[in-house]
Specification:
This protein is of the alpha/beta class. It is built from five helices and four strands. Strands 2-1-3-4 form a four-stranded parallel sheet, sandwiched between helices. β1, α1 and β2 form a beta-alpha-beta unit. α2 crosses α3 and α4 packs across α5. The termini are far apart.
Length: 141
């Protein structure tokens, strides 16, 4: 099974995971790593590494908040040092929910691509459509 790690600034990771647990229940092989003001980037990298090691999975997909931010950078460093780690930035709930129940016997890169595709598609806006006036047909009656 592919493990998931959610990492981000402040309590982004715990907050996102609380939504997932509310909707889908507590999930196996899902860890969170928050990057708090008191943490150094070395602390962050070590905490992500510990989460990876604790789960001992066949692969790990790391979801981070801001592209180029410290959680993203430290995750990318770990992915370059270790095989079987993929990293996504700009995480949203739908992308995680899409792959949450389909992590067994699946290719890590394929799983990452599916999560990214869903994440992009689920960014939507509400648009009010104007109701068109119904034209009455004159049928002679």
């Amino acid at each position: 099974m592919i493990a998931l790690i959610i990492a981000g600034h402040g309590e982004f990771a715990k907050g996102l995971n609380s939504v997932i647990e509310l909707v889908a229940g507590k999930q196996e092989l899902v860890e969170t790593v928050d990057f708090l003001e008191s943490d150094s980037t070395d602390d962050l990298k070590n905490n992500i590494k510990k989460a990876i090691d604790n789960m001992n999975a066949e692969g790990t997909l790391i979801f981070t908040d801001i592209p180029g931010g410290s959680p993203f950078k430290m995750s990318v460093e770990l992915s370059m040092e270790n095989e079987g780690i993929e990293v996504i930035a700009g995480t949203n709930v739908p992308m995680i929910m899409e792959i949450l129940f389909d992590r067994e016997n699946v290719d890590l890169v394929e799983l990452k691509e599916r999560a990214m595709d869903t994440g992009k598609k689920q960014i939507v806006t509400f648009e009010m459509k104007k109701k068109e006036k119904q034209e009455l047909e004159d049928d002679g009656i």
